[in-house]
Design goal:
Length: 237
């Protein structure tokens, strides 16, 4: 697979369960051009043996996610747009309404299955980060995203301040608090945010930094439960 090269800090595999740190460049992610096909909805995507342990961990993560957890349809619709840009087929023909609540588990299931289809040659967790990178620019390209972030304009600081509200109106339960903000760093406290705090959420912030042309790093610091982590951003002034 060809595309832009991302430079990031690589740690031993066992290290990712505790700390996820990555350098972020200026390049935006490039969708793959090869056609890919999702498995029938009656069965899940298959994963090779070298990625079986990671995939099993993600399956356990979905199982632990509360059944009452929800996400707004606009975010599922944005995810489906990402899939269409990365491969030939949507995993579902269902229509999602922007402000209606849907089971968060459904989005998590589609996201994990998409990794095996779009990025079959990399680890599932790395694939979740890459998909996460598309989230902000995809949402920002939609009318609803333009309206939501229009107050911030192209201000990096104002956009960061809008994040906590954006997360809290889109996912339930869950809170995102901008605990620290300096000229070169920010710390977000994610609590009860179940959709993959150490991978997908890291990718979201990477995508935001790339969209604003920021160079720096993003890492997650777990805080107990899978759903709790601090996301720390550092960038060059």
């Amino acid at each position: 697979m060809t595309g832009n090269i991302y430079c990031y800090t690589r740690f031993p595999a066992h290290f990712y369960g505790h700390f996820h740190a990555r350098e972020v460049g200026r390049a935006n992610p490039r969708p793959m051009t090869e056609a890919a096909t999702f498995p029938p909805s009656s069965r899940r995507a298959t994963v090779g043996p070298r990625f079986a342990a990671e995939h099993a961990d993600l399956e356990a993560w979905i199982d632990e996610t509360p059944r009452h957890a929800t996400v707004k349809g606009m975010y599922i619709d944005s995810f489906l747009m990402i899939v269409e840009r990365c491969c030939a087929q949507r995993p579902t023909d269902k229509r999602y309404f922007s402000f209606k609540d849907y089971p968060l588990r459904d989005l998590m299931r589609m996201t994990v299955d998409s990794v095996a289809v779009i990025y079959p040659d990399i680890s599932p967790k790395e694939g979740l980060v890459r998909i996460g990178r598309h989230a902000y620019p995809t949402l920002a390209s939609k009318t609803i995203g333009k309206v939501s972030f229009s107050v911030a304009g192209r201000s990096w600081g104002r956009t960061l301040n809008l994040c906590q509200k954006a997360w809290e109106v889109s996912i339930r339960p869950g809170t995102v608090h901008l605990a620290e903000l300096t000229d070169t760093s920010a710390r977000f406290e994610l609590r009860q945010i179940w959709n993959f705090t150490d991978t997908y959420q890291v990718g979201i912030f990477e995508g935001m930094m790339e969209s604003f042309g920021m160079r720096g790093s993003v890492h997650a610091e777990p805080k107990g439960r899978r759903s709790d982590a601090d996301i720390v951003l550092n960038w060059k002034a």
